[in-house]
Amino acid sequence: MAAPEPPAAPHPPSHRDWWRSAVIYQVYPRSFADGDGDGTGDLAGVRARLPYLAELGVDAVWFTPWYLSPLADGGYDVADYRTIDPAFGTLAEAEALIADARELGIRTLVDIVPNHVSDQHPWFRAALAAGPGSPERKLFHFRPGRGAHGELPPNDWPSQFAGRTWTRVEDGEWYLHLFTPQQPDLNWAHPAVREEHEDVLRFWFERGVAGVRIDSAALPAKDPELPDFTEGRDPHPYVDRDELHEIYRSWRAVADAYGGVFVGEVWLPDAERFARYLRPDELHTAFNFTFLACPWEPVRLRAAIDDTLAEHAPVGAPATWVLCNHDVTRTVTRYGRADTGFDFATKAFGTPTDLALGTRRARAAALLTLALPGSVYLYQGEELGLPEADIPPERVQDPMHFRSGGTDPGRDGCRVPLPWTAGAPYAGFGSRTEPWLPQPEGWDGYAADRQAADPDSMLGLYRTALALRRAEPALGDGPLTWLPGPAGLLAFRRTVDGGGGADLVCAVNPGPGPVPLPPHSSVLLASGPLAADGRLPSDTAVWLRG
Q: Which of 172, 348, 455, 532 has the largest CB neighbor count within 10 A?
């Protein structure tokens, strides 16, 4: 259970390697807080809630795209990187938000989507107007179709969102889009594409951002021949191509000039190829999807942790740990299901869950994650223990749902506007009208103000754990040593790198029954009550003084 008085949290470290141990909070702006009451979250709402984030104890905030966008894919269809979408505010407001956060000791990361742009981007509109063979079309992947009359797509590549990857335009040519038709893929073999994105990086670094998250980082480069897809083909025609590393080395040079950092969204099964993105002259970190997707099972959790640390070690990069994000089923809901892993292919409507069990496991997982070496990403609302919401089919907005023919529930369930104030309209989200996604019944039961008054709430647990993480020199980046114990127990010791300072032991029991605790001198924090005999109950975690 949460300690009643957490230790004072110092400001984040000011050294250049802050990112190796940082806790980074992910903000999905549409759903964080509504400052103008129109039903959509905005920068004014975030700015007003910065004290909440400071009290929570995070080191940085990562914003999903806040740029001008038709929102065909939640903002990941960017029309202009240098303009804030009017639904969220203005560039001046973004600059003020970055500055205000910095005054509170919170750094800012923005999102860049190099694989594609919006079909409303000036480049793509110019390409449509210019016609076949034009210089404007060479910025994208336009091709004539196959078949007697060009009526068939140029190749058979599968989509990331189901459905076709090619759309035909009025003059008969087709253009490539690995995601939706509203997201045409850029041609990264064209120097103008590279120059533009490096200029965008400079634009945001000059406005004070500390780093950039790179969306779909393994996808931008394509085989120039655009061959048909063959399973197992090496090299892959559009995933993890070697040309990407030259691109990211150029980006790293830009970031280094400003002291900026990168985190890449890199979904790759090959550990050696994954690690290539983390070489000292490329990306600083990359998301750890092995751990995110792992079931709540001791053997598989141990393997996910070991594999993660092993794949990062050769390049000296810190691991990242994340339980949920804006694309993934909420942790409380997932951990309450029979299948506690995550796979996009298995998402379905009506999957039953035990929220009490899921909450117990999510609390334990929070302490496990925050005790592991490296940095941690915390998606908004996870600190409140929010479950996945069931969105009525007529209110679903996610293109994954529509492109699956309605079989995939989509990702809207983890994007529902946050509850801030119990008893207030729309749980204090700030809207005068119904928010852009409906909040389920009982949503204000998770309200931040209600949880702030309860040290044993999920919010209380996160606040205490984050304060301890900052105060304990052994936590963050550094060595981990596994400890012996009974079957099913995950226990490891964290020591101060280079010696000095007290050790900390994390023990987690994902197994079915209580187990003895490792030797210790005191209990610092537990995710739930210990057994009467002092043993660690099932689905409970504890931090111990070694």
A: 455
